[in-house]
């Protein structure tokens, strides 16, 4: 390192304590080293200034001025400053850092000409790459470095980490804030733009991991060219056109940008190229990271900043700094100590100073009376911006650490040469314990460093409102504060946000496809990110009541989905009631045969002494008619609101009464058979013919059914119940059968009796009988068995009140079949053909 660099712009102000600084405002484009020839010593082939970054130098100087004027901080001592620029070039960063340490125009390592000019700490840099290069040197000498970059430099060495302090919050909080901001507005389909280097890749990997954990998808990732790519301007121009065309046509409304200095320079170049070539306007909501700011350079004076209208960015929480604007208004461009101001002045006001080695034909002469407030805000602002505020706070942090050390040394100071105190000039490494535990209150507010050497403060969320005259407003709309309880860390007032004009003040949608409407749910698209999906209708029985639901859900048991499947409606309570036509019809249908049965019974009682009534056991006939009457009437138990008593009686009464009916028919059948067999000479069957046998058949057969019903009622009886699932839109009030097996036993036994009766009657149908009763019993049992065999599938295939109606109809039909086939022929003879109801006719038939 025998030859100094050509451009050694610096800002030097003497003082008892010197605070060094590395800022980043001059961009130098230098030749790349090919290692095939001796490197060009004139590294600064071309350079220009990021005008707004000059404020970083001024905030440094203003903090030093305030501290020197404050008698409460370092009394009797003055602060000085010594600032170099990084030129965004590693070679120059190393050169200038060494110059700060050894105070030489010609860098001589480890040679200190003047101990008093050695900086106590160095503030820099403004991005992680510059900070890393500075830290690699300062860590060796244990000199404190206070950095103002949000993304901490990757320093693996323990010594480097122990000398580094960050005047910004932990970068993890910013990542969390970005995710919370996207989730707040339900932005699930976003793009990412970063610089194409390791820092950009780290940003992408960290953010994509958090995106995937929170259901956010990355629509695209675009990487801006690095500084080394700027040498080939043709390729760079084509790259910018390609990216601009992609962004203009992308179906993405939100894009996250890592607002690193070079990245923002490249991005603004891209927008300038797009606009100058008539590309389509790029309309998105830009979400910028910390330190984003408009920084238009002389090359971009014509750029329309309306592209950033409605953008959102994060900023380190800061307060207004009183007196800073006045400080800017009295700047003197002819200052000897500030080597930056003249370069800034010439580029900002497009003029040259009379003593400058530049052509004066095309530029005006700088008078020094130009006003900074006349510059457009994208070039320079009169209020302190976020990153300048971090530098301002960093100077105060070093000053308060020195003050704390001074107070300690003064209390325990060593006396030499009589009453004279040893001069207070600490070694650099002695400042570390005080920086690690420092808390201070500068003119703008409280500051505190945590155990990691990071600033404890919040991030503000800023909404950018731009105007056609290149002016803009920063509107604070929210905050991300990691110090508060978890549920309160993120807050935002979306009512005061100004959105890009494209969205007409409506919160933009950022989805791979539109929300699924209520009644639909998401179904993932094959081969697409999980944020991309198809909308499919909810299946039968399920609904979705909100937009964008991942799945449909069932309604509560007492509700059912509407036709659109987007709402649950209350189910109707239903049962077979006397108030509806079906219930009334079945009731009338039960009463009519009941009256008919009663009429038949009356006819038989009135003609009880006639041969046709006496022929087949008169008492047995009365029993059958009474039980049929009860059968018709028991069907009324099935109509009406189910109650505990009616539930107990429904099936048991039906089962027992029907068993009596079938038993009576069976007894009649046996009576026919036994009567025929008893007429044979010497037959022993005579003793079986009579009332005792018939009564025994009825009692024994009915008792078994009664026993089944009794066991049923004692073990698992029927009870009133609500069936909410059988019908989609109705709640069925029913009698739960309790034990379904017992109900099957009841029907099975009744069917068994009917089958036995049918078989016996079938074989006895041709026996000589006066009125051929066996044939009529056969037909009645055939109807009975047909009805109940049909009942089983019909009963199982219906639900609700229709299931009850099927059973009622089966009871009425089977009872009517027995009544009709057995008693209609006899009534016909009794009423219409009384001449046949005589002993003469009976003997004639017998013979």
Helix content: 40-55%
CATH topology of the largest domain: Rhopdopsin 7-helix transmembrane proteins
Number of strands: 31
- The gross shape turns out to be rod-shaped
Architecture per CATH nomenclature, i.e. the level-2 architecture of the largest domain: Up-down Bundle
Strand order of the largest sheet: 10-9-11-12-13-20-21-22
CATH superfamily of the largest domain: Rhodopsin 7-helix transmembrane proteins
Radius of gyration: 51 Å
Outline the low-pLDDT stretches: 1-6, 41-45, 414-418
Strand content: 15-25%
From the helix content, strand content and strand pairing, which structural class follows? alpha/beta
Average pLDDT rating: 81
| First-to-last CA distance | 150 Å
The description of the largest β-sheet is: 8 strands, mixed
Q: Count the helices. How many?
A: 21
Kindly give the count of domains: 4
Name the CATH class of the largest domain. Mainly Alpha
Q: In a few lines, what is going on in this structure?
A:
The chain is α/β, with parallel strands linked by helices and 847 residues long. It contains 21 helices and 31 strands. The strands form 10 sheets. Strands 10-9-11-12-13-20-21-22 form an 8-stranded mixed β-sheet, sandwiched between helices. It has a 6-stranded mixed β-sheet with strand order 1-5-2-6-7-8, with helices on both faces.
């Amino acid at each position: 390192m025998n030859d100094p660099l050509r451009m050694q712009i610096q800002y030097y102000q003497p003082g008892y304590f010197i605070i060094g600084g590395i800022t980043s405002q001059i961009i130098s484009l230098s030749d790349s080293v090919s290692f095939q020839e001796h490197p060009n010593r004139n590294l600064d082939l071309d350079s220009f200034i990021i005008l707004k970054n000059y404020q970083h130098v001024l905030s440094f100087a203003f903090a030093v001025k305030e501290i020197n004027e404050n008698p409460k901080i370092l009394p009797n001592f003055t602060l000085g400053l010594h600032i170099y620029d990084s030129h965004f070039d590693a070679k120059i960063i190393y050169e200038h850092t060494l110059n700060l340490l050894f105070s030489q125009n010609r860098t001589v390592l480890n040679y200190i000409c003047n101990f008093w000019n050695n900086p106590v700490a160095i503030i820099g840099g403004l991005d992680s790459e510059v900070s890393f290069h500075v830290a690699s040197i300062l860590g060796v000498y244990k000199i404190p470095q206070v950095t103002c970059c949000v993304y901490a430099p990757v320093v693996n060495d323990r010594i480097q980490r122990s000398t580094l302090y960050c005047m910004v919050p932990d970068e993890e909080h910013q990542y969390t804030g970005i995710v919370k901001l996207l989730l707040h507005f339900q932005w699930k389909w976003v793009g990412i733009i970063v610089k194409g280097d390791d820092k950009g890749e780290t940003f992408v990997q960290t953010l994509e991991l958090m995106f995937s954990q929170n259901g956010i998808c990355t629509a695209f990732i675009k990487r801006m060219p690095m500084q080394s790519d700027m040498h080939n301007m043709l390729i760079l121009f084509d790259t910018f056109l390609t990216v601009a065309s992609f962004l203009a046509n992308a179906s993405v409304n939100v894009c996250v940008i890592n607002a690193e200095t070079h990245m923002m320079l490249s991005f603004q170049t891209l927008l300038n190229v797009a606009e100058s070539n008539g590309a389509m306007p790029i309309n998105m909501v830009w979400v910028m990271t910390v330190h984003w700011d408009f920084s238009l350079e002389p090359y971009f004076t014509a750029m329309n900043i309306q592209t950033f209208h409605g953008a959102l960015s994060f900023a380190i929480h800061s307060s207004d700094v009183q007196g800073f604007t006045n400080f800017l208004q009295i700047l003197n461009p002819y200052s000897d100590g500030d080597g930056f101001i003249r370069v800034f002045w010439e580029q900002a006001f497009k003029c040259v100073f009379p003593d400058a080695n530049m052509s004066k034909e095309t530029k005006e002469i700088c008078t020094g009376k130009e006003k900074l407030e006349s510059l457009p805000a994208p070039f320079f602002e009169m209020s302190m911006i976020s990153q300048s505020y971090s530098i301002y706070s960093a100077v105060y942090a070093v000053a308060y650490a020195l003050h704390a050390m001074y107070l300690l040394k003064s209390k325990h100071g060593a006396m030499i040469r009589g009453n004279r105190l040893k001069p207070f000039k600490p070694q650099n490494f002695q400042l570390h314990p005080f920086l690690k535990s420092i808390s201070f209150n500068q003119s703008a507010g409280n500051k505190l460093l945590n155990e990691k050497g990071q600033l404890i403060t919040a991030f503000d969320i800023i909404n950018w409102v731009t105007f056609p005259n290149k002016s803009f407003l920063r509107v604070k709309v929210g905050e991300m504060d990691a110090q508060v309880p978890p549920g309160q860390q993120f807050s935002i007032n979306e009512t005061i946000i100004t959105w890009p004009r494209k969205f007409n003040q409506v919160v933009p949608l950022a989805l791979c496809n539109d929300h699924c409407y209520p009644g639909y749910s998401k179904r993932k698209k094959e081969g697409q990110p999980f944020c991309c999906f198809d909308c499919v209708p909810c299946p039968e029985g399920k609904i979705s009541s909100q937009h964008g639901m991942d799945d449909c859900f069932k309604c509560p048991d007492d509700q059912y989905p509407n036709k659109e499947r987007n709402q649950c409606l209350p189910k109707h309570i239903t049962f077979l009631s006397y108030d509806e036509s079906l219930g009334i019809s079945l009731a009338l249908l039960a009463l009519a045969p009941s009256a008919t049965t009663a009429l038949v019974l009356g006819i038989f009682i009135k003609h009880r002494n006639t041969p046709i009534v006496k022929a087949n056991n008169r008492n047995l006939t009365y029993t059958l008619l009474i039980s049929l009457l009860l059968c018709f009437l028991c069907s009324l138990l099935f109509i009406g609101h189910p109650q505990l008593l009616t539930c107990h009686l429904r099936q048991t009464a039906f089962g027992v009464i029907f068993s009596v009916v079938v038993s009576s028919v069976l007894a009649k059948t046996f009576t026919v058979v036994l009567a025929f067999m008893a007429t044979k000479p010497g037959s022993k069957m005579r003793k079986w013919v009579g009332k005792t046998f018939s009564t025994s058949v009825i009692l024994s057969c009915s008792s078994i059914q009664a026993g089944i019903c009794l066991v049923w009622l004692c073990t698992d009886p029927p009870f009133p119940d609500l069936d909410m699932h059988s019908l989609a839109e109705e709640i069925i009030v029913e009698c739960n059968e309790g034990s379904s097996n017992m109900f099957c036993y009841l029907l099975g036994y009744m069917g068994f009796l009917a089958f036995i009766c049918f078989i016996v009657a079938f074989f006895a149908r041709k026996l000589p009988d006066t009125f051929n009763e066996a044939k009529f019993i056969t037909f009645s049992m055939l109807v009975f068995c047909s009805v109940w065999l049909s009942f089983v599938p019909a009963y199982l295939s219906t639900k609700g009140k229709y299931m009850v109606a099927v059973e009622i109809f089966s009871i009425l039909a089977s009872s009517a079949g027995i009544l009709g086939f057995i008693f209609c022929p006899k009534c016909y003879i009794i009423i219409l053909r009384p001449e046949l109801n005589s002993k003469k006719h009976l003997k004639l038939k017998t013979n």
